[in-house]
Design goal:
The chain is α/β, with parallel strands linked by helices. The chain is built from 12 helices and 24 strands.
Length: 501
């Protein structure tokens, strides 16, 4: 007698019941060729930042102006991303049925219409939903009602309009919860937009670190979107919303050395592998360097990333058009032509070679080499040495920093560039955060926070930074290993001072 077999779809997999048991198989049957084709059409884009995601349209001093989209199209961009804050009471009711104000919906339609009238593709998103980040369960119905209305309002628009469900989920909207919220919002969108392309962002502020915790639904019309602002101490130097430490970063440069490029390529390794495994096209929805950085460094960083993203076959959207990161000054009515050229015209340049001077090399032959392990928030873990540094994690806590592997006593000189190289493994793929920072309050990261990944693969990973703060001879190198019970082994760590030749 043949065994009875039933199947049903679950998120990202096929559940096969064979009478004698249940097997969960990867879902390879989803045809995302349409998503890849649309991502290729997205090409090069720019964000209309500090406009509709502000509390009111002019609140941040950068109101949208008719004619901007003609300028953007004439420059040669392919699409615009329009961030929108839908949640304010003046725009959406705070009580059922959570109606979006008709005048605001009409305003957004007017803006989308003008962009599409200029031949631009449009990514329309939900941005800065602070109430949702603070109280996800309490705001879930409002969030879904908003998407039900947005989807219905644009249901008759052509495919050149794409939706992005939520910008940079964070706060109490955890990575696990975000998977469910995205799936629920997608179901609302699919009621009226069955084939529209929808962008899937990542939790923990939209960066690379939470990519492996995504569970992409088995939907053919999904594009993965990530944001990239590293080195953060370079891109956000002098940005007052980051905190007072950003002033210490002023003067940080990006020199386009082979070490700096190597760091970027290392950071994207996990995202690239994840996207390939799930057959997801990649859209880099935000990248940019704030205007307080020197223009020459901004140009070098922007040029490299734009060309490198294109080499990978990814679409991108620069942050942003006409505010603090922008390529256009409304007050001067002039472009920052160097940035325009970096985004759209300049070819990939040759990197600058570096000389490296070793400042620390691990030696785990007889022990832990001065490394320590700290746990908080109910986490439990154990550290051992002898040939390699092994961290066995029984409970990972509820934050990355609840399990911290630390090397104290790292000497850093102000204005000096450093590279950290390490080889580490884990039984299965997992992510972590690495940085070098202060060993006392406020415990800030001199290097910014770098998403790293561990797996059975022994390949070397790197990150680079320039010490923008005052000289600190007792900094600490940290791996934040919380949120997971997957053990980690560190085989080697090297800290180098790097100098351009």
């Amino acid at each position: 007698m043949a065994r009875r077999r039933t199947t049903r779809l679950v998120t990202g997999a096929l559940l096969v019941v064979l009478g004698t048991g249940t097997v969960l198989l990867p879902l390879h049957a989803v045809d995302r060729s349409g998503a890849h084709a649309m991502n290729a059409r997205l090409g090069r884009g720019i964000n209309m930042g500090n406009m509709f995601e502000a509390p009111s349209e002019a609140a941040w001093g950068n109101p949208w102006r008719s004619g901007y989209f003609r300028m953007i199209a004439d420059l040669g961009f392919d699409h615009v991303r329009i961030p929108v804050r839908w949640e304010t009471p003046a725009r959406t009711m705070t009580t059922p049925p959570y109606t979006i104000t008709p005048t605001f919906m009409s305003r957004i339609r007017e803006v989308v219409d003008e962009a599409m009238g200029e031949g631009l593709l449009v990514v329309l998103n939900m941005h800065h939903h602070d109430a949702l980040f603070a109280d996800p369960r309490g705001q879930r119905d409002r969030f879904l009602a908003q998407w039900r209305q947005i989807a219905a309002a644009f249901a008759d628009y052509p495919d050149e309009l794409l939706f992005e469900v939520l910008n940079e989920p964070h706060g109490n909207l955890s990575a696990t919860m975000w998977n469910d919220f995205f799936a629920d919002a997608l179901a609302e969108i699919r009621r009226t937009n069955p084939t529209r392309q929808v962008l899937l962002g990542t939790a923990e502020y939209g960066g690379l670190g939470a990519v492996p915790r995504l569970r992409p639904p088995a939907d053919p019309n999904i594009i993965l979107t990530v944001h990239y602002y590293n080195p953060f101490s370079f891109t956000h130097q002098g940005a007052d919303w980051v905190g007072s430490q950003s002033n210490a970063w002023l003067g940080t440069t990006w020199n386009d050395t082979d070490a700096e490029r190597e760091s970027i390529e290392s950071e994207f390794r996990v995202t690239r592998a994840f996207a390939a495994r799930h057959d997801l096209p990649i859209h880099v929805g935000e990248f940019g360097a704030y205007s307080t950085a020197d223009l020459e460094s901004r140009v070098r960083w922007t040029r490299f990333l734009a060309r490198w993203f294109e080499e990978q076959g990814w679409s991108w959207a620069y942050w942003e058009f006409s505010a603090g990161f922008g390529i256009y000054s409304p007050s001067r009515r002039a472009y920052v032509q160097e940035l325009v050229d970096a985004l759209l015209h300049d070819p990939m340049s040759e990197p600058i070679a570096v000389d490296a001077v070793e400042r620390y090399r691990s030696d785990f032959a007889r022990g832990t080499d001065g490394w320590t392990l700290g746990t908080q928030g109910g986490a439990t873990a154990r550290l051992s040495g002898g040939g390699a540094l092994s961290v066995a994690i029984a409970r990972g806590g509820s934050e990355n920093w609840h399990v911290q592997l630390v090397k104290p006593g790292v000497a850093l000189e102000r204005g000096t560039a450093y590279r950290v190289r390490f080889v580490g493994t884990s039984p299965v793929e997992r992510t972590a955060t690495a940085y070098i920072g202060r060993a006392s309050a406020p415990w800030d990261a001199y290097s910014g926070y770098t998403a790293v990944a561990f797996s059975p693969d022994r390949s070397e990973q790197t990150f680079t930074f320039t010490m923008g703060a005052a000289t600190d001879r007792n900094a600490r190198l940290v791996f934040d290993l919380g949120l997971s019970t997957v053990d980690v082994t560190i085989e080697s760590v090297v800290i180098e001072e790097v100098r351009a030749r």
